[in-house]
Amino acid sequence: MGVEQKLGDMGIVTTKLEELVNWSRTNAMWPMLFGLACCAIEMMAAQASHYDMSRFGMELMRASPRQSDLMIVAGRVSRKMAPVVRRLYDQMPEPKWAIAMGDCASCGGVFNNYAILQGVDEIIPVDVYVAGCPPRPEALIHGIVTLYEKVKGDTFREAVKA
Amino acid sequence: MAQLEEVSYEQYKHLVSERALTGETMLLNMGPQHPSTHGVLRLLLELDGETVINAIPDIGYLHTGIEKNMEAKTYVKAEVMTDRLDYMNTTGNNLAYCMAVEKLVGLDVPERAQVIRVIITELQRIASHLVFLGAFGLDLAAMSVFLYCFRERELILDILEMCSGQRMMTTYFRPGGVWRDVPPEFEPAVRDFIKIFPKRVDEYEALLTKNPILLDRLVGIGILDAQTALSYGVTGPTLRASGVDWDLRKARPYMGYEQYKFEVPVRNRESKKGDTFDRYIVHIDEFRESLKIVEQGMDKLKQLSNQPVQSDNRKFVPPPRSEIGVSMEALIHHFKLWTEGFPAPKASIYSAVESPRGELGVYLEGDGGPKPHRVHMRTPSFDNLSVINKITQGHLVADLVAILASIDIVLGDIDR
Amino acid sequence: MDKRLEKVVQELQEKFGSSIEEFRDEVHVFVEAEQIVEALTLLRDKYEFELLSALTASDYYPQQSPRFHVIYQLSSLAKNITLQLRVPVEGVQPKVPTATRVYDVANWRERELLDMFGIEFEGHPDPRRILTPDGMEGHPLRKDFPLGYEEPQFTFNYDDIDLKKIYAKE
Amino acid sequence: MLEYAAIALMIALATLVALIAIGLGNLFGPKKPSASKAMPYESGITPYGEATRRLPVRFYLIAVLFILFDIEVIFFLPWAVVFRKLGLFGLIEMVVFIVILLVGYVYAWKKGALEWE
User: Which phi and psi (to 5°) does residue B28 adopt?
Assistant: First the structure.
């Protein structure tokens, strides 16, 4: 990543820098408007005024992958949709994260058959799995806060290796 | 994982005009990930500048193989699958499936369970129309309507959660009645909702109906005449907006709908041509009609206060737990029903219900065993969407967005 | 049987020599594959069955001679009656003439039956798969098509499944 | 001379803020180019044909009209700054300017340049 590739580890300077960069990333992480099935309705309810995901920096659901940092796979991924999900994930700029919302995205859930991908982690690296069918909006927000904890722990060295 | 190859002209040669090959018209994908396709629908648009010449839907991006999966589960377990079909109208799917099973095995449903089913289904219809209105407003850049609609929807979801423990995928209706009786807090919660909701509908109307910008975008757009609608199998509010008075709750009353007084909102009965604005108005009127049904249902519920909510036919409905410790037959029935399920006769039936999007029919075929031989869900959005190419030709891309929002499709319904 | 329906069924019997099945206030009329378009036009024009509400099929796998039944569920809005036509179809090369000229809803429904059961509809304007991915062989809703079960990952078999599961690294 | 310093300062500050925003993003953002990332985004599907496809001339017409009336608005800005000093003369001058452009607008409107068909 940018300067870290050049700087590497400079002790106090880069840790303070890491905290600043991670702080800025966790407070304005825009998810991609990418609802597949029933979990998308719960995601919309989480975005609406009652549960209000905007309190956690998710002000907008950007429609195009070019302007979004987080891909919430909300719903069941069918075999026909899998390459599209993979391409959308590729087209998101770095640094990007992925939340598998709901049982169908995490492990195929109720549908263990020919049509559904058994877990979206077969095609994209998932950071946080949110359980539930569909998970309540609070569960999704809890998943997002867990993701923020994970992002806060990011150090540049890992990013350089990855 | 299959690779995404380029959209080739040969694939669609018989659907698009040949001007697309010469590059005169543009082939554009309004693809699976698009803010205004209400889910994962891909529309291959053939555009001449802003005018839509052809809008070819390509569905299947959410195909879940539900019908195949239901063949591998017993009748009671298969009901869990129906919730995930039309995820805006989950209790309606449950009702359609339960009525099909009851019709196949000849199971009776007690009076109180029928009233509870009607109330919950009508509340779910209001919730589904609220999401329709929210998405409809969002597509026409009226952002605030989305937030207002979801505010009311939360009240209904609380009521559903109070009865069944789950906000959306309730599986609250079971073949033979309802899972358990409504809790005592159900009555005040629904009464409050009935009291505040009419004012909220007037609030939506004040925001949208007389808004000149919206009228310009809706009136005269996406004309669908009754003859084409019936030939394309369009049912529900979209058909009623084109002047055909066909509502299964009135035509073939089920669950005691004949005892409720309500009218079916139908527009341009004589001109038989409905546009996007009519479809929007039919949805708004249906808010008020459904509320009337809920109100009459609540009064009826009060009269049948302590009646059973499950049929006492032990061959199909598991006995209450209190009885198991006492009587031997109850234990046998309990054990048999929960391990193997009940066998159904070797025959097939078709029973239809009026879902917020149209006629939701279930073709259920038993083969004598505990598992259904074939379950086909005739879902309304599948046929409602097939008419989109015909009614959007010649309109602008912005109108296509409004028309797609007005026919209110749900992709879980279409791809099953 | 509803008396208005009796008249319709009688005419179908004389014209197409079809047998009847009755179950729970429903009438199933068996029609041969060649006569189906004629029967549908007759029902739509003469007896006002405007809405073909459902068009589906059912697979009776081990039985090869009529392996599939293509089911046309018709409903008449004017007279508020419903009727079901069933067309038995062979299992090897299932072919049924298309009904798109009579009802436009048949266009997508027949594409779905081609996709799910492999039943070909002669004269269909756009015979493509509609639901399953393009490269898919086999027809899912046939009885001999496996459901496609994958063993779920629980605590007791976590490790050996973890080895087999293909995780996307980046 | 002094007021030009103020404008120069504003321009400098504006470019500084822009540079900081882009620079930080560029500096700290990890760079992992890949083939599918470079492909044009068309709702997740490979687009048909190359990106520079032939566009109908109406788009150009609307673009020209927009530029025309946008420049008109830009001419308001200097006028608004010295509006008090110019007094009545400034007002009449601007009204004449606006009327001329209004005639142009009404002509374009009635000619149907704004309609898409």
Answer: -125, 140
